[in-house]
Amino acid sequence: MHCQVIIVGAGVAGLSCARFLEEAGIDWHLFEKAEGPGGRVRTDEVDGFLLDRGFQVLLSAYPEARRRLDYAELRLGSFPSGARVFSGNRWHTFADPLREPTAAMVSLPVPATVPDLWRLAKWKFRTRGKDSFSLLEQPQQSTADLFRAKRFSRKVRYHFLEPFFRGILLDPELRVSSRMTELTFKYFSEGSACLPESGMEAIPRQLAKPLPLNRLHFASPIDRVAPGAVELADGKRLEAAAIVLAVDGTEAARLLPGLPETGFHKTTTFYFDLPALPPQGRWLHLCPDDPGLRPLNHIAFPSAVRPSYAPSGRHLASVNLLQPAAEEEVRQGLRRLFGDRVEDWRLLRRYDIPRALPFRESLQPPQLPSEVDRGLLLAGDHRGLPSLNSAMESGRRAAVTLLTGQEPASD
Ligand SMILES: Cc1cc2nc3c(=O)[nH]c(=O)nc-3n(C[C@H](O)[C@H](O)[C@H](O)COP(=O)(O)OP(=O)(O)OC[C@H]3O[C@@H](n4cnc5c(N)ncnc54)[C@H](O)[C@@H]3O)c2cc1C
After folding, report:
1. What is the mean pLDDT of residues 63-92?
2. How far apart are CA 162 and CA 7, in angstroms?
3. Would you say the CATH fold of 49-196+265-358 matches that of 2-41+202-263+363-404?
4. How far apart are CA 93 and CA 146, in angstroms?
5. What is the pTM of this model?
6. Measuring from each residue's beta carbon to the nearest atom of ligand 1, which residues come in under 6 Å?
7. Cα first-last separation, the chain
């Protein structure tokens, strides 16, 4: 086979690249080792429940996603702005007073000081509307140091900021670059955290929908990559004028020795079937790093945000950990948080995801160039920030570089 471009990997980066090449009339083919598209964004249907492979959300303010996805067709449901935090053996609603004023009023007092609330508001107004590039050019430090530098109290860090950002960054130590945290906070401030009606996999499926099926080759792992050629696991050699390697950072380093290897943060999600939601189930529930709760970091009830996540009359809990643990350990923590009702929660499935998000202790430069050798380009979340937005953007950048011969400027 000979074509103009071969793409390796049908995650959102590879699919996004394919969409641009297809629109430009390029002769491309995509090879993916799994049996379907999506990469790290897959959803399984189990007993009528929709189980995303690990809890994740689409931030509606993501600029690349807004440009490329049809949000109306995804039928997004959104989490309220803020979270439930656990302090003094009970839940409090820590709500954004501008977007959820009623919840913010009725839930006082929250485990935070008045200066904390002021500093959070100031941070929000400073990042909202600011262009991403300037946030990514700021001096960087670890996220844990950023919270101390902003003089947030231990109370608000422990109950809200740390579990919230541990849940997003999947980094137990919060060593991730403050640039990533600033940018993520900006997107949270400008929009909502959303779930599509038919699960997160609806996102890559929407990207794949207009692509001709005869160009998408699933269950086709690539074993070797070189400028101008790839080799399938069965030994077949395929040639192209350009190759776009849109696999994760570890796989990219295996296929192209010499590339720096990326380490990964891991996560584990337990899904439970529940007869009823706990009070205020639409909110994200955050667990402080308390020895009695320890394996738990955050809990969400996706069916409260999008009822299609559970069959009629049932609900779904997504219980998230930053390291694997036994079911009984998880249940012990849940009993402290939700009491005896947990006895009625039935385990549906657990997902252990060892390669969830690439390490990002330093972000320099914010988006690495796509072309690493003549006709050999890289895409994927390891080229920029670990997010759906950045992965999609990297796919577009690789395609535009191929089409114009020039790396496009960053957003
Ligand atoms: C649990 C979890 C939670 C997350 N939460 C969020 C969130 O809330 N918000 C957010 O924005 N992002 C989140 N992310 C990150 C986001 O999902 C990723 O950044 C994004 O999906 C990465 O897409 P990608 O295309 O770069 O890589 P991938 O999705 O990893 O795609 C790479 C593809 O390449 C294929 N492949 C690998 N090797 C080969 C080979 N040799 N031959 C052929 N094919 C190959 C793989 O099978 C895969 O399909 C989360 C990720 C996880 C796992």
Report:
1. 95
2. 38
3. no
4. 24
5. 0.96
6. 8-14, 31-34, 39-41, 54, 56-57, 221-222, 246-248, 251, 267, 353, 356-357, 380-381, 386-389, 391
7. 36
> What would the mean pLDDT of 374-400 be, rounded to a whole number?
94
Q: In this structure, are residues 164 and 83 in contact, taking their beta carbons and an 8 Å threshold?
A: yes
Look up residue 82 and give its amino acid: G
DSSP 269-303: EEEEEESSPPTTTTS-EE--S-TTTTTEEEEE-HH
What tokens were used for 297?
């970091």
Residue ranges per structural domain of the chain: 2-41+202-263+363-404, 49-196+265-358
- Mean pLDDT for 334-348 is 96
Q: Domain 49-196+265-358 carries which CATH code?
A: 3.90.660.50
Residue 260 DSSP one-character state: P
pLDDT value at residue 110:
74
Nearest CA to ligand 1 atom 3: 56
Assess contact for 341 and 278: CB atoms under 8 A: yes
Is residue 195 a contact partner of residue 318, using CB atoms and an 8 Å limit?
Answer: no
Torsion angles phi and psi, residue 181, rounded to 5: -70, -40
Phi-psi region of 293 (alpha: psi -120 to 50; beta: other; left: phi over 0): alpha
Q: Are strands 2-8 and 237-245 parallel, antiparallel or unpaired?
A: parallel
Q: Mutate which of 43, 56, 244 to test ligand 1's pocket (most atoms within 8 Å of Cβ)?
A: 56
Contact 256, 225 (CB under 8 A): yes
What's the Cα-to-Cα distance from 141 to each of 150, 176, 186, 275, rounded to whole Å? Answer: 12, 8, 17, 44
CA separation for the pair 251, 283 (Å, rounded): 36
* Architecture category of domain 2-41+202-263+363-404 in CATH: 3-Layer(bba) Sandwich (3.50)
| Nearest ligand 1 atom, CA 358 | 19
Please say whether the dihedral angle defined by the alpha carbons of residues 221, 224, 230 and 232, taken in this order, is positive or negative.
negative
41 alpha carbon – ligand 1 mean position (Å): 6
pLDDT tier at 95 (50, 70, 90 boundaries)? Answer: confident
In this predicted model, what pLDDT tens digit does every residue of 152-187 receive, in sequence order? 999 999 999 999 999 999 999 999 999 999 999 999
Residue of minimum CA distance from atom 1 in ligand 1: 54
Position 108 pLDDT exceeds 80: no
Q: In whole numbers, what is the pLDDT of the chain averaged over residues?
A: 93
Enter the tokens of residue 258: 């010499």
Find out whether 258 and 268 touch, Cβ atoms under 8 Å: no
pLDDT value of position 370:
86
